[in-house]
Design goal:
Blueprint lengths: L1 E4 L2 E4 L2 H4 L22 H12 L6 H12 L7 H13 L3 H14 L4 H19 L4 H4 L16
Antiparallel strand pairs: 1-2
Amino acid sequence: MLRFMRGHVYSVARSSIIPRSTAVGVQNIRASHDGPQESEEEFNNRYVTYLNRPDLTHWEIRQVMNTLAGMDLVPDPVIICAAMKACRRLNDFALSVRILECVKDKCGSKLNEIYPYILQEIKPTLEELGINTPEELGYDKPELALKSVYDYN
């Protein structure tokens, strides 16, 4: 194994990484994450608590949603509602629509199954806050799309 440090290459003996007393079959243990596993409820509560902070900024909402977009999941409706309320506190309608577009994009191939469920769950919050979905605004269709040349006949 080679270790790079400030332009120099150092050779590290394998025995210095794996203790000699360790059995050969045990050496293939994954040690990338040793922390406790977080339940789905704890995960949701962590993000909802963060988004409910009264001093939350525009940048912090974007950071949270960007972090969630980078994960292999669709945010829970509770998190989406907290994000919508945070957008409303900051009077940022455009960000709320972008968040909904991001959630729709995260549904991927299961769009027809997941997205209607999410809309059903967050609809009371959207109505309470006066936020329209991208479909209600016409953002799901291209605005200046040209008619296909095959459709002229």
